[in-house]
């Protein structure tokens, strides 16, 4: 007599899959992180929700492997990953993971709650971070469609964003603060043009622009970290835009002649800036 197979316990299977993925990530972490502080950050990043989300992205074949750490920011960690494109070619990708336990809820709320695209978001810590991830995906998509040089977004899920890796031989392109421009006058104008094009063509204000989130590839500038970018309808959009201009002027002032911030703002927006 044939025995009746036991029903599959999907919850148990999921836990086993999480544990396997967790072991792989811990193996990666042990090779990358040498000090106690770095190991603590790794534990903060790969909580149960994040592990489940990573497994889902692997199951969807968005990525097929996880590599080493690329950067650690105030809100997120970025890792190198393996990915197969639509033509079956193995390529690199960047996996940006927003930390659920230590994400700055107050800062994120300031940028999200005034954005009409995200007016219906529930104001819980977790939902704000999930919206933040979606917002960066949306902003990158919008900027790319407008011809702005920035990473190509591939997918997002909960607190994880998968996007194009910007670098060569697994080494990311440097920030402009790390590789100072050989022709600062030209690079300064390129940076101002990026601010202008982002506003006029993509209808976005970066909102946190500085020498830390502009990469350079043989002199060409690339914008990164677009989660906080807002549309002109945001009540603080003009304040954010003026601050972006001021930050770029501050960075380039020791290297070349800069243009008055109020004049630049007027050239970009067509209005005078009055701080709110």
Report what the structure shows:
With 276 residues, the protein is α+β, with helices and mostly antiparallel strands. It folds into 2 domains: 15-168, Phosphorylase Kinase, domain 1 (2-Layer Sandwich); 173-269, Transferase(Phosphotransferase), domain 1 (Orthogonal Bundle), CATH 1.10.510. Helices cover 42% and strands 17% of the residues. It is built from 8 helices and 9 strands. It has a 5-stranded antiparallel beta sheet with strand order 1-2-3-5-4. A two-stranded antiparallel ribbon has the order 6-7. Strands 8-9 form a two-stranded antiparallel ribbon. A hairpin with a 2-residue loop joins strand 4 (153-157) and strand 5 (160-164). The longest helix has 23 residues, at 10-32. The radius of gyration is 21 Å and the shape is globular. The chain starts with 9 loop residues before the first helix and ends in a 7-residue tail after the last helix. Mean pLDDT is 86; it is low at 1-8 and 28-36.
